[in-house]
Amino acid sequence: MYVPLNVDKHWISMCVNFVSRSIEVFDCEGLKHTKSVDPFAVLIPRIIKAVHSSNNSKLKVKQYIMSVRISLFSCSVSYVPMPLLNKSSSDCGVYALKHIECHLLGLDFSLVNDSNIREARQKIAYDQWEAANDHVLISRMAQFTPPKKITNPVVELE
């Protein structure tokens, strides 16, 4: 699961891997954001429990949750090393999105740097404008109806 996260007016991105119980953090300024990232590490067992609760299958998560409890309800968090970027201090959101894209596609993070971030920002803006004017997308959005089934948002942990 890829997550862009705003931390004190600064954007970072994360890759949450439920299988390996790990979180990779991508920050163009190379800082650590423990207070903002650690809650995600605690959230993983709760998400697993919620999925299990809403699905009456034979999925066994008790052992998973117990192993996470042993490690203080957390998973491993690692900060991906990268050079200090974002010297203009205004493109951290673009960096966050581009780091997600690089990670997803298996590309080297060095492809995203201060010399090409302006063009990346313009491309993202154009892609959003193009999507906002796409008649097929507009039609599909107009026909969307939210699911009628409402589940209980509270999940009890064992």
Structure, explained:
By secondary structure, this protein is an alpha+beta fold. It has a single domain (2-143), classed as Adenoviral Proteinase, Chain. The chain is built from five helices and four strands. It has helices spanning 34-54, 62-70, 92-105, 117-132, 135-143, and strands at residues 2-7, 10-17, 22-26, 76-79. Strands 1-2-3-4 form a four-stranded mixed β-sheet, sandwiched between helices. Strand 2 (10-17) and strand 3 form a beta hairpin. Helix 1 (34-54) runs antiparallel to helix 2. The protein is flat and about 50 Å long.
Q: How would you summarize the topology of this molecule?
A:
Layout: E1 2-7, E2 10-17, E3 22-26, H1 34-54, H2 62-70, E4 76-79, H3 92-105, H4 117-132, H5 135-143
Parallel strand pairs: 3-4
Antiparallel strand pairs: 1-2, 2-3
Helix pairs in contact: 1-2
Domain Ubiquitin-like protease family profile: 1-103
Family: Belongs to the peptidase C48 family.
Pfam families: Peptidase_C48 (PF02902)
